[in-house]
User: Which sequence fits this backbone?
């Protein structure tokens, strides 16, 4: 790896390379977090009684519910995305698609 020096052109290139590495690290971190969140939703749906073969459908339905709430969040920015909101949204998925869940 090239050392940064006092030459402004080299120094700028060095800083750009550092930013690129930092961005790549951030992207990796975001992807890891995304994967962890999806795993947690899989667990939540499991405990809600979701049949395994409907996981992708349930996730898509959950996202549609979230998108339908976008206006509410914009109108009331003081609202928080809490565990209770997640539970309520999972219950909506369950109410809309009871066949996806075990009795």
Assistant:
């Amino acid at each position: 790896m090239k050392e940064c020096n006092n030459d402004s052109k080299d120094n700028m290139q060095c800083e750009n390379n550092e930013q690129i590495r930092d961005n790549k690290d951030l992207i990796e971190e975001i992807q890891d977090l995304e994967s962890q969140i999806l795993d947690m939703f899989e667990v939540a749906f499991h405990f809600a009684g979701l049949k395994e073969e409907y996981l992708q459908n349930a996730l898509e339905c959950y996202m549609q519910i979230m998108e339908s709430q976008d206006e509410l969040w914009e109108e009331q920015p003081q609202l928080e995305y809490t565990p209770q909101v997640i539970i309520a949204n999972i219950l909506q998925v369950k109410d809309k698609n009871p066949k996806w869940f075990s009795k």
